[in-house]
Amino acid sequence: MTNTRANDRQFAAIADFVLDPQLAVPEEALTFASTLLIDTLGIAAGAVDLEVATIARDFAADFHGAGASGHGARMLFDGRRVSLPGAAWAVATQIDNLDGHDGYNPTKGHIGVAVVPALFAFAEHHPDLSGREALTALAMSYEVAARAGIALHATVDDYHTSGAWNALGVAALGCRLAGTDNNTLRHALGISEYHGPRSQMMREIDNPTMLHDGSGMGALVGCSATLLATRGFQGAPAITAEAPAVAPHWQDLGQTWTVALNYIKPYPVCRWAHGALDALRALMINEGVVAADVRSLSVRTFAESARLFPGMPETTSQAQYSLTFALATLLLHGRIGPEHISGQGLKDPDVAALIPKISVSEEPRHSARFPQGRWSDIDVTLNDGRVLRSGDVNARGGPESPMSDAEILEKLHHMAGYSLPAERIEAIWAMRDALLDPGAKFSDLAALVTPAP
């Protein structure tokens, strides 16, 4: 049985990191945190009109009302004021269901999806928060969430969704901005872990739904835990932070900045499909492969990827947890955007005609490299009989193969362009650098993404 007793020395180091008012984040990490922030906002904007996003925001407006004006926050790209936890939950759910947000390979999941909406919700109550202070808090929360996720995966057999551990990053963020003491932080982390959604990831992979990666509930629980703890509500120590068995995962806190090691997704579908997608993309670019020339396409990938949805999806959730559909879409259209995984994109007969040409199998050497990498290789047989082989390809977008600023900006326009005019997208992008200026206010960015209702 895991030791669940309080571990004062182990926790003290975490608290010193989270609550240190002079926390020094390396400039490289702070700059990349700003990039991750803007990229996540692009996904939030791109997801505005998804059915699940509308349901989530309307639900928050109907059932997550704030009892007083000081308890509320506006929902991003919506403007309606709801409770602080409700705002974080609705927007995290929205982002989670357009699967183009950042992630960190060792956690097998995602951080920004929960901590970015929470940052905006908490920041409404700190109007003088500077851009650099906000980015420092954001980077800190990435570090806490990453280690909580790795610790959870290392100490349990079941594969839990990101909401089970990114809730701790949200709680740490809230406590830092509130300037709590160590004891309050300890209870907030304990409440977050105890109530975090220990939902089974592979259950969702096998049955794709709007539940997605549990990050909406992670944001809700993390925000609620902070607010409860500041009122004196007590929680048992967080095992993923204080158990002796997880100590090695926290030893480099403040030394290794994992936030700079997060990946940015080129495609709004499950990262597990990206190795195969990038292998196909390379053949399309280097060999001129087009859909009309393809007789068959065979994919060898890791076990989790091979379990992705295999046919023509009926829902956006199935489309984002797909492999063959994603490959067919990329082959036909040259890119994957929100329009391809929703609405009429789910009924595209030309995409449907390509899916039977694609076969998928597990390759042990790729499985052995998961979760540190997302490797696949493909063979494309052309109508003239030639066979083109990709070789082993790891998903790009991470530190080993980063996207350029131009590619990230192009992605921002592709994702957010369905709900925002180009000039507003450019203004949001400009805040990536502006937030780093000593005199910048975080509210300047908030004004661009939380319009009046």
UniProtKB/TrEMBL annotation:
Pfam families recorded: MmgE_PrpD_C, MmgE_PrpD_N
Organism of provenance: Roseovarius aestuarii
Name of the protein in its database record: MmgE/PrpD family protein
PANTHER family given in the database record: 2-METHYLCITRATE DEHYDRATASE (PTHR16943:SF8), 2-METHYLCITRATE DEHYDRATASE-RELATED (PTHR16943)
GO molecular function, one term: lyase activity
Coiled-coil segments: none
Domain of life according to the entry: Bacteria
Family assignment from sequence similarity: Belongs to the PrpD family.
Residue intervals of the MmgE/PrpD C-terminal domain: 267-430
Gene3D superfamilies xref list: 2-methylcitrate dehydratase PrpD
InterPro entries named among the record's database cross-references: MmgE/PrpD_sf, MmgE/PrpD_sf_1, MmgE/PrpD_sf_2, MmgE_PrpD, MmgE_PrpD_C, MmgE_PrpD_N
Record domain MmgE/PrpD N-terminal: where: 13-242
